[in-house]
Amino acid sequence: MSGHADSAFKAALESNHRWATETAKTDTEFFQSAAKGQAPRILWLGCSDSRVPETTVLGLKPGEVFTHRNIANIIAPTDLSLLAVVEFSVAHLKVSHIVVCGHTSCGGVAGCLANAKLGGPLDIWLQPLRALREKHADELDQLQGAERTTFLGKKNVQQSIDVVRRIPTVIDAERDRGLEVHGVIYHLDSGVLEEVECSEDEKTASLRGATFERK
Length: 215
What we know:
This protein is of the alpha/beta class. 52% of the residues lie in helices and 14% in strands.
């Protein structure tokens, strides 16, 4: 291990010890409570980007957000890791909200816009984003610079939410206990979360849910 990498890890470990000590002083029940179990109200489906840590940007504490993150917050209906996270958080933890979060200046989005070959599994993983770029090519041609990245990022969030809403466990929870699904874009230059329009008409929701009505 290089000296630089080693020092980065040691600094992080020391920071953890300081945080644990300070937290134990300011919130004496925090760790005892956390050790007993979790009851998050939010499931966060976001990008792995190091600049978008969910609890930090939401101003919340460990234990308040259940999380799944991957490159460019791609939501694929065959992703077993994602499906396991959704199943556990929705069916067992009974979260009240699912939040799909994209962000500005996303490297995955930028790579797709440039039609760049990123190598390895990345090009396969980002195929849904590349398809969105092709679908919205005319709209993208009317935009410049960062507007293009933000536009495609929002379309990715909307498409991801469409996939989430078709997961049987989510359909059941929306119908039976009012689970809500939301889309947001995190603006790196301001730290603000912007809601993305992801509403649907009642007929669409009804048709989707009818497939899984209990007999």
